[in-house]
Amino acid sequence: MVLFKPIFPSLLIAFMLALLIACLCFPPKSCLAAPMSPEPGRTMREVRRADASGDQMAAPDNSRYHRPSGKGARPVPRLKFRVAIDIGHSRTTPGALSARNRPEYEFNRKMALTLLRELSRTARIEAFIVNPEGEDITLHQRSGLANSAHPDLFISIHHDSVKPDYLGEWTHRGVAAQLCDKFWGFSIFISQRNAGKKASRSFAQRLGAEMLKAGFIPSTAHLDMAEVEGHQPVDAHSGLYRYDGLIVLKDSHSPAVLIECGTIKNRAEEKFLRNPAYRRRMARAIRSAVEHFAVGYSRN
After folding, report:
1. What CATH code is carried by the domain that includes residue 284?
2. What is the pLDDT of residues 194-228, one digit of tens each?
3. What integer is the mean pLDDT of 98-112?
4. pLDDT tens readout for residues 11-37
5. Which of 26-30, 82-86, 170-174, 239-243 shows the lowest mean pLDDT across its residues?
6. pLDDT: which is higher, 67 or 160
7. What angle do CA 244, 246, 249 make, to 5 degrees?
8. Is 172 inside any structural domain?
């Protein structure tokens, strides 16, 4: 046994030297990878947050053209059809109250986000939300934000109330509320003062047809509004009305519609409008109308 004692340490040292040389000559692939670093001007936390959210709600590049890189490269027309989705009202000015005292803005926001997800399923369409944080801005500012992104189509999402004469009283969970179970359904509005009024009407008619095809019913609540200037039925069968004074429509540089997705003063319809599956069905009908319109649309 004595004869092997001096040999063992020598073997151990030789093995360790061989292992060190192997690591130096053939490093693991993970050691060769470049260290992860944030984009210029952004922290790593900001990059991760953007990756997680997908930046879906932000407006795209504010241009009608794609500008390829490279010296002498010329701008080429944008290939994707761009849709601006406007969430009606804001957090601090939430619009009408439902039959159960829920703010209209809550319905508008959920429907707008559902529509955004549906439109993202179509490769040739890109959509963005106008005023995604629900800031309290003027209607003119709202139109300006949308116009700055040069959309091909503007869709404003709302939910309807009724004239005060039709409202009744009831109590929901111990709190007084107003209701109207007489009217139910959607309405679509266009403005003759819109820059693309012919295209607006064409899209609105297609939208009404797709809503009917999907099983939705047009409201009759606006049929008696002909006495209001610029507010009259165009095609009541498909829920289409003209309302020239709507600022977000007449200020839009692109074809534009405002859709009242339903009557939240109606207690039964309010429940449907809060149902995610019902909203998805409506969003698919709107997406189908956008797809048909985009095929024949010519960007000026």
Report:
1. 3.40.630.40
2. 999 999 999 999 999 999 999 999 999 998 776 66
3. 98
4. 556 666 666 565 555 554 443 333 333
5. 26-30
6. 160
7. 90
8. yes
- The one-character DSSP state at 103 is B
**Cβ pair 218, 204 in contact under 8 A:** no
Whether 73 shows a pLDDT value over 50: the answer reads no
| pTM of the full structure | 0.77
The count of structural domains within the chain is 1
- Say if 112 falls within a structural domain: yes
- Whether 124 and 133 have beta carbons less than 8 Å apart is answered as no
| In-domain check, residue 95 | yes
Contact present, 209 and 238 (Cβ < 8 Å): yes
Scored b (16 or more CB within 10 A) or e, 77-111 reads ebeebbbbbbbbbbeeebbbebbbebbbbbbbbbb
Residue 116, CA distances (Å) to 30, 61, 185, 199 in order:
39, 17, 22, 21
- For residue 36, what is the DSSP state? P
Give the pLDDT score at 19. Answer: 61
Dist. CA 115–CA 56, nearest whole Å: 12
How far apart, in whole angstroms, are the C-alpha atoms of residue 193 and residue 276? 35
Which residues, in sequence order, are CB contacts of 21 under 8 Å at separation 6+? none
Rounded distance between C-alpha atoms, residue 158 and residue 222, angstroms: 15
Residue 81 vs residues 1, 12, 58, 123, 126: alpha-carbon distances, Å: 85, 70, 16, 9, 6
Decide if pLDDT at 43 tops 70: no
The count of residues in the chain is 300
